[in-house]
Write a structure and sequence with these properties.
Distance between the termini: 51 Å
Number of helices: 17
Shape: globular
Helix content: 10-25%
Strand content: 15-25%
Structural class: alpha/beta
Number of strands: 35
Radius of gyration: 33 Å
Strand order of the largest sheet: 7-15-6-4-8-10-9
Length: about 775
Amino acid sequence: MAVVRFICIAFFAFSLFFLASGNRNQIALKDGGYENLLIAITKEEKEDKGLIDNIKEIFTDGSSFLFKATGRRVYWKTITILVPQSWPHLAEYEPAKTETFDRTNVRIAKGESPSPYARLTEGCGKQGQYINLTPQYVRDKTYAVKGWGPRDKLIVHEWAHFRWGVFDEYPYENDDKFVVSKKKIEATRCTKSVSGVYRDYSRSDRKCQLDPKTGVYTKSCKFEDDNSQTQRAETSIMYKQFLPSINFFCNGNEVNPDKRHFAEAPNRHNRLCKGKSIWDVMLGTDDFKNSNNPPRTVSTTTPTFRIVQATTARRVVLVLDTSGSMEGDPLMKLRQATTHYLESTIYIGSYVAIVGFSSSAYQLAPLTLVADDNSRARLTGALPSNANGRTSIASGVRMGIQILSSNGQSSNGGYLLVVSDGKDTSVPSVFDEVVSSGVIIDTIAITEDADNILSELSSISGGRTSFYSGSDSITVLIDSLTATITDRPDQTNEALAITIYSEALTIDDTSDTATSDCFIDTAVGVDTIFFFAWLDNPIQVVLHSPDGHIFNKTSVEYNLNSADEIITIRINGRAVVMSNHVDVAIDRLQPSRIIDLKVIEVSYQQQSVTLQWTAVGDDFDKGSATEYDLRFAETFEEIFTNFSSANLLTQDDVISGNLLMIKQSGLLEEVKVRLPKRGAEVSYYFGVMAIDEANNTGGLSNIVSANLEYIPPLEQDSNGINVLVLIVVAIGVAGFLMFTLIGLYIKHTRRSTTGSNDRGPAHVNPAYA
């Protein structure tokens, strides 16, 4: 019987963001202090110590404000700053270990916008990918404060996006600026306690008018927050954190209704978080749920900073156990896995040495530059082929450190990759040498007989530790070796081997055949390698591509290594790919949630409301849903908390449009529906839910409201009539007045659209992914 280990590896270029995003630097939260926050400066920036000083200032001040804003619950305790590899090395720079730009939590880079932003991909309540601050924002405090307000408050605003997956509470450009709430027109904000005035600068009297088509103020109407002298609102940081009085997040449990979360506001946060308050979403995250991190007193909120820098080239010493317990299959598996590592994983420009150890340590290969296939072959040829003697892990570690520090080099930042299945009581004797040398030790323990002290070697040096049972598929061991590279790609790396598929197949006898498929997406692949390893009986491999091409033992891409029982098939260039195929017997996938329900028009005469939303699919955004559950109620609470009991709208209620003809995902749905009554203080709230043929529901949409009171036609501005008269009487004078009026109008419009209005700086973030 032969057990075949099948691995598909692809080399990717310039795509580390997509591949490594799921392996972000992990931030720990202990006793209210965030530890291991990683900030990285882009390699595009030239050396600038002032940039580092400003980062420290922003996060020191921000830590104090974060502690206040969360009710004395959390702050930043330890922060690591990764400076570019191109900067001159300074004595205080420690060697980077797992820190890379791609894994960072906060990027100092040009990014996609001059505005600070957080990259979110996982939805409400889920941590994002990173925060981006531009070098100009960090370096120029005057520019930053003028544009976005105090930097300590801005960084907490962005931290809330990133860490807790909450969204902005101010209206975006295409959002409704006003909403009917409890028979009153309110501005989109949180909370209602944010005071201000409604003004229309297109009119001479500056008074806002109700639009009979929408039931709320006209689009030219603006809500201007009261300035710092008269503003008393304390929430919300996700609305306009730059207002001086604002220091806290919106809370759905606030006793005072004016300070309570405004769930009816048609802003991005309410749409994506189903009306939950910022604070309620935060309390549902791991940071605070189950009463984690309650209010506390701390001696200081000032973070401790350390600065790290990547070494110029990766230097690795493989420290391999060759004691008697490794004889037979264990040594063969070790050779197969390390062959894969040397041929396919470690990349060009790295340096690798090999040390074997049993009763004592010995060098198998000196530190060798991985420059081409020949240098890889020399290293694989040096792998150990015999196993005997006792186990001396300590001697192997010492020799590895000596090799890294040979020829006048510093061992600081070098890697030892220690693989062993034995025990060695003398290992603690090298702990001090490990710490003082600055090496990073990754360890792989083979079988439960391996010494637990291996994990301590990794712990004290900042390395990673893995376990291989010995009976598992060799792909587990290969993945552990591969992870020592892929978990910490160098900043200079542009091509990285990623394992995209692995499987173990059993062949019962020499005449049996095993078949498997490897699906490769069209977006991947510069070079693709298929790696097969076996034990016992030899195998043959035939590889079929979707275009009918066959690779076998006669192909130039086919390489047989009988000694190590390995077959590799290397396809240079972009691999031919197969189409994705999913066979789902039972439909368990629900439609997406509708998040853009809008009131397009209201009609007092027809006693109707026109609603619009984007169609979703049968399975998330694929295909089309089967039906819509569209309902209305007279109060927000009724439809929000008990949707199924609200009034159902059917095709019989439709004046135009069709609720029975469901459109394909991505297309706009629009229906005009007749409502039961109209008049003074008559308003309705609406919600919709998509349902598929298996009765899976997409969840309640965002909720919108409509005002059905009588609103007279819009009045013509009397000042506008006077201007028309002047045009007829005196063209020259009228032209002058028109020029003046237009100038004033443009001036006021610019003030209102920037968001400043002399009442606070603009805060225009890009839309979050």
